[in-house]
Amino acid sequence: MDRAFSLEVAEEPWHQAARSWIAAHLDGAEIVSVEQPRIRPWSTQLRVETSRGRHWFKALPPGAAYEAGLHALLADLAPDDVARPVAVDAARGWILDVDHGPTWREQRAATTADWQSLMARVARLQQRLARHGDAILATGLPDCRPSRTVDLFDRFVTLFAELEPDHPCHLDAGVASDLRDQRPRVETAAARLVASPLPSTLQHGDLHTDNVFASPEGLRLFDFGDAQWAHALEVLAVPRGVIDADEGDVRWEPVLAAYAAEWDLTPDDLADDLSATWTTQSVHRCLTWWRALSSASAAEWSEWGVGPVHHLTRVLSHD
């Protein structure tokens, strides 16, 4: 296994290279201080105080490095929805951006109306980006179109069943058999979405109000590390989960209605396709976690390694 990402980014040679790159893209501003508040298997951030204010630097491991080029491209394609980074190095998976202030969640609790506005905006963004699939996929964004879902499912069931028993993603024979029994259900869901009137497009993958800046210029999405090219409705999985788990007064039904209306549809029109995405998104979320841990250390696998199997075995649950 290659050296763990988290070990590399904790060492001085990496910090020297990162600081040098950051300094070269500050347009004459001076670095005052650099702190590293967090290291995860899938990313690390540096908080960079400069003579012209705070900046943030994000670095991704090879399995997630596509986010840098993707972010830059999305800022070109949708500048009203995605803030343009100060600089990116797509090959190394590095992003430098100014501090945009608190996230929407940090500013205030979102209401039902707020969620309706956000999801309507996301639907319009998806419609615009659906026309740019070739360019967006060329950044390395994971291709999770429904035509690929069954192959991904087969790949992971086989892979996890063949892992050593002490691996966090190992499937015992019983669970592997149960998953294979659900293959027709995965096929049916994928076929439903292939025939759907809604397209495959950018699926943010982790859409909630802590991944949205609310500035005087308007809402800006960020953190595309979990993004995929997938059926449009898969973007609803995380918002629904967040809203259902929230103890506040936000109601899911009007939020779904606001999203559907941007496609000139109703929630009833979306019901069968939406049901199918609960199955396909389980497979695709497994891929997200597997890629996120591709450069993890043994200790990180012990801490986070249940993620891929957790999501794959959601296929066994019937929504």
From TrEMBL:
Query: Do you know which InterPro entries this protein is assigned to?
Result: Aminoglycoside_PTrfase (IPR002575), Kinase-like_dom_sf (IPR011009)
Q: Which residues form the Aminoglycoside phosphotransferase domain?
A: 48-234
Read off the SUPFAM superfamilies from this record: Protein kinase-like (PK-like)
Q: Which domain of life is it from?
A: Bacteria
- Quote the protein name from its UniProt record: Phosphotransferase
